[in-house]
Design brief:
- Helix 9 runs parallel beside helix 27, helix 27 packs parallel to helix 29 and helix 28 packs antiparallel against helix 29.
- The chain starts with a helix and ends in a 13-residue tail after the last helix.
- With 953 residues, the protein is α+β, with helices and mostly antiparallel strands.
Length: 953
């Protein structure tokens, strides 16, 4: 035991001295190991610090209160809730009855003597230094101790008077205002003074203004109603503090009154799932990660870590081999003085141990320093403040041990190779000849065949991505194991090459111990790059085939549905001024109720409308005549598949032109913008007819019927009770069906403003559609975005550019990554080759070879390694991508067949899952990367070496 300790101690000292002597090589290997450790450790520190404890979460949600009470909006009927209060549902089942809906008086559920704070939220368009900004307004007495922790005061103070507000720092930055500035809302004459700035720890990018309860939202709602618009909705919760808090039993008692509760005591000591009635209800449960999902995540994480370690070992292994080769005389002296093979292995392994420990320490320390120093930037990037700086020593130690293990594994093969050399060969510099192993290629072939069979099974039989990915990974490992044999096959091409590349190739084949790891490292990186690139290019092709344009190419739409189109004139003017507009077509929408009603009929006194589909034109699969049952159940699978091809069941589409209810108000200019050339359509519009783009809307008399519902809330309530909707009127209009060959871009029906007025339909501005002379430039679009941002409106602005793929940047990044790994691995192998071939280079120089031979030989040595790795990696990478795409095709085809059987086939089309090889990426990898590696190696190699005699053999 004592001898073992002293021998390893001496080995470590020798390894430490060698690492310090060859600083360049040591730094290279250390960086390769330390950088992943730095990234993983920093990610662990960031993740753990951003994970808030239950107490920290509660402080940000409910401050110092004991609970937050929330109206479940079920008219006070008993409810069941999850312990955190996020999920809740009525305790009774309402399958055949009207769903309870309505407010509850939450104040009646407060315990006696409790301290209560009202927390109300709404929105308003506030005036800023640049224009208007849609902002959340929160009425909460933030200075009260009960609210401490919800908001963090940064400057000034929280409001204390009705005409004072505080604002988030992000709002002040966006609006151009500051503490002390005056603030007002659009449409309101009230003015407020900003007295402080704060931040929300959970949402640093929130645009929010804080006021005292009743100071802002109620006056603003009155001003908006006075202007004839619909006031914004307001949600109110209550922060409650009482001695003893609220236990789970107390929460359940409050639930019987239709109130949901988020309790501090319950979250700090949650009940078991068996004690939560909501989780016992059918269709509800605790949707946390299952043990199987966690095991799958751990398996995926382990696979990624293992492959990363393999890649580092393949890259770092040749570097350790370089060190061992340059230290072979020193190792020979150890053997000459009584050291055996175990001592030689210990010295080389100690090199990996020393570098691994240094990399672990360096990566961990840098991760701690950088994460702590960059924490404010990380918080800004993630949009929330971290909790305590959470350092978990065991996790960091485990990550550091991976670095040590990686260093040791990278030095294993060089250690074994060095220990097998005789003392005489080490002292004289002779390398000897040793045949490569025949067992490893056979093992690799077996892994390749088994992995290929697994991937093939996953592609053609199963639809599990995990099977394909696992089989592909196993096959790739098999190819890595076969690399020495494959390198030998490449050597047979040398007879047709000129002198320098022939020497480089033969040298690579004769010294497979240093060539194979570098080629394998390149192979692994390139295979991953090609696999992801092929998958991304194929996915882009699929998305391009499935893409449906919203408008003709180059056309623009700018629509505003809020506040009755109040900002439409300003939006129209901005688009007209800033874009190269050719034709502008203004459109309106039908409005039922007050002008400010939303198109969906939300709000008191607001209604809606729809185009009535004649019963004869309704799709039998979802006909409304079958009340309370699924009409598709009346048909067999074969009948459902047949009906999927029925014109009544085919989807008309709603991807482009907005028209809630199915009717858009415009003129013939819209037809020109959309590229619809139908003389009959323009004539029909001039005659006051409705243009119908859907055959299903027209009855047998050639008419279109518009159903107007005066009050949507009353209509929904009546429908739930099985009664006819009150205040409903039907308007029958003449129509013209546009040719089915014309692309309508989702528009269903069009009526002119004059015809709509004559039919008694009220309209409000919606926006405009534009055709352009040329595609707007990026600068023009940015200026337009800036102008619209000043309005503070929710504008649906769309420029039709056609399909724009998102994989180009990904493909470029992957190509650069693979190129860097290839050049790095090939460079390491070239350095080792130069160390081995120094005597041969001296001989060439002695017999009169020109100086450029040294440079060209080095370049070709690097290029040969890069080329072999890239060729093998490209072949190995395409197959997994094809397997994954075939699996996707089977999965999508199964979903499509199921939709046909269930009667929804008309809403989808047969799946199109192409396989596209990214030839540009492959060309860059196969040609440019090896060529660049060869040129780089040639440039950094000296033409003349030091004059020295060649050792005798």
């Amino acid at each position: 035991m004592n001898n073992w300790f002293h021998s390893w101690r001496a080995a470590i000292r020798i390894a430490r001295r060698d690492a310090w002597r060859y600083k360049g090589r040591s730094f290279l290997v250390l960086a390769m190991i330390a950088l992943p450790i730095l990234g993983v450790s920093a990610a662990d520190l960031t993740l753990r610090s951003s994970e808030l404890s239950t107490t920290e979460k509660l402080d940000r949600m409910i401050g110092a209160a004991d609970a937050r009470f929330n109206d479940a909006a079920v008219a006070g009927v008993p409810i069941l809730q999850a312990p955190d209060g996020e999920m809740h549902t009525p305790a009774k089942d309402y399958e055949d009855k009207a769903w309870p809906s309505g407010p509850t008086d939450v104040t009646k559920t407060f315990p006696a003597g409790a301290v209560v704070l009202t927390d109300s939220s709404g929105s308003a368009k506030l005036t800023t230094a640049h224009g208007l900004l849609q902002t959340e307004v929160r009425e909460l007495k933030a200075a009260d101790p009960v609210a401490r922790g919800i908001m963090t005061l940064l400057d000034g103070r929280f409001p204390e008077k009705a005409d004072e507000v505080a604002a988030t720092s992000h709002f002040l930055e966006t609006s151009g205002l500051k503490v002390g500035s005056a603030l007002s809302a659009r449409g309101s004459t009230d003015t407020y003074r900003i007295v402080g700035s704060y931040e929300l720890p959970n949402d640093l990018k929130a645009d929010q203004v804080n006021a005292l309860p009743g100071a802002f939202l109620a006056p603003y709602a009155k001003a908006v109603e006075k202007a004839g618009l619909t006031p914004p909705g307001v949600s109110t919760t209550y922060l409650v503090k009482t001695p003893g808090g609220f236990t789970w039993n107390m929460v359940q008692k409050i639930n019987t009154k239709g109130v949901a509760v988020t309790s501090r005591a319950v979250l700090l000591n949650p009940p078991a799932d068996s004690e939560v009635p909501l989780y016992q209800k059918e269709g509800w449960g605790n949707f946390e990660s299952s043990p199987g999902a966690e095991a799958a995540e751990l398996a995926a994480l382990g696979t990624v870590v293992g492959l990363a370690m393999l890649e580092i070992c393949l890259l770092a292994g040749p570097a350790f081999a370089v060190g061992a080769r340059r230290s072979r005389r020193q190792l020979g002296l150890v053997g000459a003085n009584g050291g055996d093979r175990s001592h030689i292995r210990a010295i080389v392994l100690s090199g990996g141990l020393v570098i691994g420990v240094a990399a672990a320490v360096t990566g961990t320390v840098l991760a701690l320093i950088l994460t702590f120093a960059l924490q404010p930037l990380l918080e800004d990037a993630l949009g929330q403040r971290f909790g305590d700086f959470d350092v978990r020593p065991l996790e960091l130690l485990g990550i550091a041990l991976i670095a040590v293990l990686t260093g040791l594994m990278a030095a294993v093969v060089p250690a074994i190779t060095s220990s097998r050399q005789t003392v005489l060969a080490s002292l004289t510099g002779r390398r000897g000849v040793r045949r490569s192993s025949r067992v490893l290629p056979l093992i690799g072939l077996g892994a390749l065949l088994l992995g290929g069979a697994i991937a093939l099974y996953g592609s053609l039989v199963s639809d599990q991505f995990v099977i394909v990915a696992g089989g592909s990974a196993l096959a790739e490992l098999g190819v890595v194991a076969m690399t020495p044999a494959l390198v030998g096959l490449f050597g047979r091409t040398g007879r047709w090459l000129p002198l320098s590349p022939r020497l480089a190739l033969r040298d690579a084949v004769r010294n497979r111990g240093r060539t194979a790891p570098a080629v394998a490292a390149v192979l692994a990186a390139v295979a991953g790059t090609v696999a992801v690139s092929t998958y991304a290019a194929s996915d882009d092709a699929q998305q391009a085939a499935e893409y449906e344009a919203r408008l003709p190419h180059g056309a623009v739409s700018a629509l505003v549905v809020e506040e009755g189109g109040r900002d439409v004139p300003a939006v129209r003017d901005a688009v007209q001024r800033l874009l190269p507009v050719d034709i502008r077509a203004d459109v309106n929408r039908v409005s039922v109720g007050k002008p400010g009603c939303s198109p969906y009929g939300d709000g008191a006194g607001c209604g809606g409308y729809e185009i009535v589909i004649p019963p004869a034109n309704e799709c039998p699969l979802w006909s409304r005549s079958y009340v309370g049952e699924d009409p598709s159940e009346k048909f067999s699978k074969e009948e459902r598949r047949k009906l999927a091809q029925d014109w009544r069941c085919k989807e008309n589409g709603d991807r482009g032109v907005y028209g809630d209810g199915g009717l858009l108000v415009g003129d013939a200019k819209l037809l020109k913008v959309l590229g619809i050339e139908d003389a009959g359509a323009e004539k029909a519009l001039a005659e006051g007819k409705v243009l119908a783009f859907s055959k299903a809307q027209i009855d047998r008399n050639g008419k279109v019927t518009v159903k107007v519902i005066a009050d949507m809330d009353k209509a929904l309530k009546a429908e739930a009770e099985g009664k006819p909707a009150p205040g409903t009127t039907l308007t029958v209009l003449p129509s013209y069906q546009v040719s089915g060959d014309e692309e309508s871009y989702g528009i269903q029906a069009l009526i002119t403003p004059a015809a709509a007025k004559a039919a008694g339909l009220s309209t409000v501005p919606l926006g405009s559609f534009y055709s352009t002379d040329r595609m707007p430039t990026a600068e023009q679009r940015q200026r337009l975005d800036g102008e619209i941002a000043k309005l503070g409106s929710d504008v649906d602005l769309h420029l039709e550019e056609g399909f724009v793929g998102e994989s180009s940047i990904v493909l470029l990044a992957l190509t650069v990554f693979a190129g860097l790994v290839t050049i790095g691995a090939a460079g390491i192998a070239t350095g080792l080759a130069q160390a081995d071939a120094e005597a041969d280079l001296k001989t060439l120089s002695a017999v009169g070879a020109p100086p450029r031979v040294r440079r060209t030989l080095s370049g070709f040595q690097c290029g040969v390694v890069a080329a072999m790795g890239v060729v093998l990696g490209s072949a190995a990478g395409v197959l997994p991508a094809i397997g994954l795409r075939l699996t996707e095709e089977r999965q999508q085809l199964r979903f499509y067949e199921k939709s046909l059987d269930e009667g929804w086939g008309a809403l989808s089309s047969p799946p199109y899952v192409p396989v596209v090889v990214p030839w540009e990426t492959l060309a860059a990898l196969l040609v440019l990367v090896p060529l660049g590696a060869a040129l780089l190696a040639a440039l950094v190699t000296r033409s003349r070496g030091a004059v020295a005699r060649r050792a005798a053999i």
